[in-house]
Model the fold of this input.
Amino acid sequence: VYLRNKDNETLVDIEITNKSNDKPIDLHSEVDIRLYSQLLLSLREGERAKCINTFEALQELRGWYWERWLEMEAPEDHTVRDVELAIMEILTPICEAYNLKVV
Done:
């Protein structure tokens, strides 16, 4: 799952893996610091703190996945698609707030 800007550049790369049936699904997220910084600098000063917190949370999605979603929200027999849908719920308002898109 990719979070991209209007120029189709990837700000956030979210990788959901399921290497084998005997290992649990895992998640990794990475924020491109250059593109994130450009976005941050394009915002008014009063909007920057929220953006910083938002992208910090995106960088920490693996922790959210293991500590919150798996423990409290995940269906018992969840699939990669279930994880993708949960991620999409997080990304949709971010896309709207910062004129981004999910690919």
Remarks:
- The radius of gyration is 14 Å.
- The chain has a mean pLDDT of 92.
- DSSP finds four helices and four strands in the chain.
